[in-house]
Automatic annotation (TrEMBL):
Residues 374-392 have a biased composition (Low complexity). CDD domains: GT4_PimA-like. Residues 372-392 are annotated as: Disordered. Keywords: Glycosyltransferase, Transferase. It comes from Stieleria neptunia. It holds the Pfam family Glycos_transf_1. This is Mannosylfructose-phosphate synthase.
Length: 392
């Protein structure tokens, strides 16, 4: 069986983490008995270990990186590439079907953005979301198999397609890289910074940094000297300005650190020294930073409207979005109740151990069974969304 993987929809570091994280154990388990062909942009080749196992690579010019140009290439050129490669099954990572595909398709679903109107900032994004939902709906009915990275994400697809027949589906949680586990062991003896809160994400408005700032202000009013560290890029300069102005207005300059991007080593140190991880997000299909924080025994406070509560349930508290007072109450428990913190920390470490790639990639072992499933000719465009640039 020859599997061709179309990785062109990958638009972020988290996308690489997910797709190649799954392909690493898949390639180790199937090569050379089966074949693996990876279509990728010239500047985003597969990891060396996958290529060294015998995977074939097909680079695509960077001039097709814009979503509309990518769609053109996938529609006009990719079917011929699939035939020329002799592929039996195609894995597409966009959440929708590859156009005019001559063989059965497995669809990896990572992106909940189009189902969350609160994150659509203008009419262009609303139009893209509508087109994306059409593409997702076609895949939901006609793919040989859908693989969702959380049950939460599968429920979003199901809620939008209640009267439609669902194709076969599996849930495959995202795994943690081995270097995360190793770093957690190396940093196990670092002292925790008292009353410290860490938030790691691409800081888009729907990630809720403003809610965490308000929660810190409430905690300070209760004489709890909470400190908040915000780690990650700011894709929206206006939102960054809003949060910085909020910090100044609430006189929290000494309580809130905006660190931006940091190195992997510094990120691991932050997971280890902070008392709690928090993200007040509207929209997460998994929550990789929250899962990484658990590997360091760090409890989690987040919302119950996204996948983080599913992934991290035993390791903290999860409640309403846009609710600074609830968030402050939850953070207060994590910061001041030592017995509860210890229980959550232990649960976090145990939960993180289950998120290893070998275990998480089990669903991908089903792909060779799909080579004889009839291909679907149904397709609607699925444009890129802001969350293809921002971590899930």
């Amino acid at each position: 069986m020859r599997l061709l993987v179309n990785t062109l929809p990958i638009g972020s570091m988290s996308g690489n983490h997910v797709v190649y994280g799954f392909l690493d154990p898949y390639s180790a388990a199937t090569l050379p008995d089966h074949d693996l062909v990876i279509v990728h942009y010239e500047d985003n080749p597969p990891p060396a270990e996958i290529v060294e196992r015998g995977a074939t690579t097909i680079p695509v010019s960077l001039r097709y990186k814009n979503w509309a140009q990518r769609l053109f290439w996938e529609t006009i050129r990719l079917p011929g590439v699939i035939r020329g490669a002799g592929a039996d099954v195609v894995l597409t990572v966009s959440g929708a079907l590859t156009p005019r595909c001559p063989v059965p398709q497995v669809v990896l679903c990572q992106n909940p953005w189009c189902y969350r109107p609160v994150v659509h900032r203008n009419w262009k994004e609303r139009l893209k979301a509508r087109l994306q939902r059409v593409g997702y709906s076609n895949a939901y009915q006609n793919a040989a198999m859908m693989i969702y990275i959380s049950g939460h994400l599968r429920e979003l697809y199901r809620s939008d397609n209640r009267r439609k027949k669902e194709c076969r589906s599996e849930i495959a949680y995202v795994g943690l890289n081995e270097n995360t586990y190793q770093a957690a062991k190396q940093h196990a003896d670092l002292p925790r910074d008292p009353y410290s809160i860490l938030s790691v994400s691409a800081m888009a408005a729907w990630k809720g940094a403003h809610t965490l700032v308000d929660a810190v202000s409430i905690l300070r009013q209760r004489d709890i000297p909470a400190k908040l560290r915000l780690v990650g890029p700011w894709p929206d300069a206006d939102y960054e300005t809003r949060v910085r102005n909020q910090v100044a207005r609430l006189q929290l300059d000494n309580a809130v650190e905006i660190l931006g991007r940091v190195s992997d080593d510094e990120l691991h140190r932050q997971y280890a020294i902070n008392k709690v991880y928090a993200l007040a997000s509207h929209c997460e299909s998994f929550g990789i930073p929250a899962a990484e924080a658990m590997a360091f025994g760090t409890p989690v406070v987040s919302t119950d409207c996204c996948a983080i509560s599913e992934i991290c349930e035993p390791a903290g508290l999860f409640g309403p979005v846009e609710d600074p007072r609830w968030t402050a109450d939850a953070l207060q428990t994590a910061l001041t109740d030592d017995d509860q913190w210890q229980a959550w920390s232990k649960a976090a470490s145990c939960r993180a151990q289950t998120l290893n790639w070998d275990r998480c990639a089990e669903a991908f072992k089903l792909i060779p069974q799909l080579a004889d499933v009839p291909p679907s000719s149904v397709y609607s465009p699925s444009p890129a969304s802001p969350s293809e640039q921002n971590a899930s």
